[in-house]
């Protein structure tokens, strides 16, 4: 296996543009610009790969052919309705099929590079569109690129794939698509569905009758900060992954859990998000021989948070993490000010938050986060042969 990291990127990925909409491609543009200015993409073992669009054979591994036809036809039909398209969340835009297929092709290319040993890790920063359903657009997502990439890995011979989703929203599309497939473990940490779209991701969602224990959901209360998030992550994710023994780790690294994100109510910092990426890399190294496919995802603090979070992700995936005290380069600040007028442009790669946490214990007075942890462990741990009350599991 090569020790390279593949970063799948081309400016044509910015064509996934819904117009006046929260999912603004400027967040990806500014991420790549910041990573370039900090030298992350010029590291010796980093290979930039230009994506090709996913063809229909790939897309129909997950999506209904009738839905593909609708996505193609919708931009030319002013009266089009249906398939979740033409809503405020999923407006129709020109070249919608082509842009969505290209994002999917980027994530598939990342997965193929890792599985074939051409790279130890790969990042598709424009990917992570995890809400799309087989025959329906949802939550800003037209095609479900992580699910298509996972299906491709299965076709290439993978027998155990773990998908970990740290977006603030539940990874509902990926969970549903592999609901009854024991070869795919889906883990999602997210704000409680009682408070946030898509209204799914409760602890009792544990997989279909042929795959019980293959879906794991940690539903966190609004206001959860870095210490609570890290406590929940480490109380659930490592144990579940170790029990499953994946061959490859696929992650959706949405940055919308950040405290400045306008669409959600968690209070994470870029320091806490950086700590999560380091933990994911360590788990991939421990369990998968380093095989890690990372995507972007949500994130709507377009200047203030997303570019820094995902630049940390790119740095962690490509080698040495960036020191949080690092200044953002002047050239990037000027670009960010021009692309996001009126927004606060960060001066450093940190929010000055210590993301340390106290490990979960089954005793003592439980906090709201502890109750969320306990609900998940009690529901799913026995299905995986784990003890929900033993902190060593």
UniProtKB/TrEMBL annotation:
The keyword Transcription is annotated on this UniProt entry: no
What InterPro entries does UniProt report for this protein, alphabetically?
A: AcuC, HDACs, His_deacetylse_dom, His_deacetylse_dom_sf, Ureohydrolase_dom_sf
Keywords of this entry: Acetoin catabolism
Residue intervals of the Histone deacetylase domain: 21-315
Coiled coil (UniProt feature):
none
Q: For this UniProt entry, which residues form the secretion signal? A: none
One Pfam family it belongs to:
Hist_deacetyl
Which superkingdom heads the taxonomic lineage of this protein's source? Bacteria
Question: Pathway involvement?
Answer: Ketone degradation; acetoin degradation
> What family is this protein classified in?
Belongs to the histone deacetylase family.
This chain's protein is named Acetoin utilization protein AcuC
Q: Which organism is it from?
A: Micromonospora musae
